[in-house]
């Protein structure tokens, strides 16, 4: 069996060499093979570079997240309001119906809100980095009823 495999392999190798070193079209075939190998190498190089860049950026992100857990930097009240508004803008609530203010890392939420939206809003605001306390001054409604600001389907800010 080994002699048969060697024979078939030898015949195949001979045919491949004849194909590549053909006096009429061999140069063209060798050039095509070289171009294909070079293109494959470029693709592999590009993918390796992208993967390397991606892993580096992910590592920077992990380091930044870890640092933020242990660093408790003081932020201005304006930045804190922007952070809370940004976080609340990602959840489907009637964000236009209420006002957000902050003083000494205490965030005050006032305005009108539906009862089923209240827990989502308080939980989201509580976990914003820099918030020490939430002052809930919402006027809670069970249904939108005659409150214009609570009419319609709530949507995240990006969906509008």
Features of the shown structure:
160 residues, alpha+beta, Histidine-containing Protein, Chain: A, 2 domains, 4 helices
DSSP strand content: 15-25%
What top-tier CATH class of the largest domain fits best? Alpha Beta
Q: Which term fits the overall shape?
A: elongated
> Residue share in helices?
40-55%
User: So, CATH architecture of the largest domain?
Assistant: 2-Layer Sandwich
- Whole-number radius of gyration? 33 Å
Average pLDDT figure: 86
Task: Please trace the helix and strand order, writing H or E for each element.
Answer: HHHEEHE
Could you give a short account of the major beta sheet? Answer: 3 strands, mixed
Walk me through this protein's architecture:
This protein is of the alpha+beta class and 160 residues long. It has two domains: 2-68, no CATH class; 77-151, 2-Layer Sandwich (Histidine-containing Protein, Chain: A), CATH 3.30.1340.30. 53% of the residues lie in helices and 15% in strands. It is built from four helices and three strands. It has helices at 2-20, 26-70, 77-88, 118-126; strands at residues 98-103, 106-114, 133-141. The chain has a three-stranded mixed sheet with strand order 1-2-3, covered by helices on one side. The longest helix has 45 residues, at 26-70. It is elongated and about 90 Å long. It starts with a helix and ends in a 19-residue tail after the last strand.
């Amino acid at each position: 069996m080994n002699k048969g495999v060697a024979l078939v392999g030898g015949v195949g190798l001979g045919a491949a060499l004849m194909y590549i070193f053909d006096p009429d079209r061999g140069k063209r075939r060798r050039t095509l093979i070289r171009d294909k190998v070079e293109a494959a190498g470029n693709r592999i190089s590009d993918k390796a570079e992208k993967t390397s860049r991606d892993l580096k950026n992910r590592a920077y992100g992990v380091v930044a997240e870890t640092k933020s857990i242990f660093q408790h930097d003081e932020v201005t009240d304006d930045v804190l309001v922007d952070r809370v508004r940004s976080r609340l803008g990602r959840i489907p609530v009637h964000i236009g119906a209420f006002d957000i203010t902050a003083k000494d890392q205490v965030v005050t939420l006032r305005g009108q809100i539906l009862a089923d939206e209240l827990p989502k809003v308080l939980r989201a605001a509580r976990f914003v980095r820099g918030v020490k306390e939430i002052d809930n001054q919402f006027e809670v409604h069970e249904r939108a009823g005659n409150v214009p600001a609570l009419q319609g389907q709530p949507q995240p800010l990006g969906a509008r």
